[in-house]
Design a protein that fits this description.
two-stranded parallel sheet; 25% helix; 118 residues; 4 helices
Length: 118
């Protein structure tokens, strides 16, 4: 992030779209994966979500849609992301991506793709 800030400037970041990647960096393939299930893993998302410089920057889910175990996958991905806030462990965050979850509260953020993080 320091290199980005030096070359472009963090103030230029207007929003983030969040997705993990099915392919490795440099593959020139843009295939989205669920948060924590791809090549990136959870750590980059944890760092981004807990960086106070981006506390008010909109973040959009750009992950595959559908249902898993009867749950909307946006809910599963948002639950995983919320589990990364404020130093949660990898196990607690990744558990949100493996087990059934209840829908998050309305104050915890939007559930639809294309909406910003609260």
């Amino acid at each position: 992030m320091d290199a980005f800030d030096t070359i472009i400037g963090l103030e230029q970041i207007k929003a983030f779209h969040l997705n993990d990647s099915k392919k490795e960096l440099g593959s020139r393939v843009d295939r989205h994966e669920h948060i924590g299930r791809g090549r990136m893993g959870l750590e980059p998302f944890r760092r981004l979500l807990n960086d106070p410089r981006f506390a008010n920057t909109p973040m959009y889910l750009e992950t595959p849609k559908g249902q898993e175990d009867g749950l909307d996958l946006d809910v599963v991905n948002l639950t995983t992301l919320r589990g990364l806030l404020n130093g949660q462990t990898n196990e607690s965050a990744s558990a949100g991506n493996r087990r059934k979850q209840t829908a998050p509260s309305r104050t915890a953020g939007k559930q639809k793709s294309g909406t910003k993080k609260s």
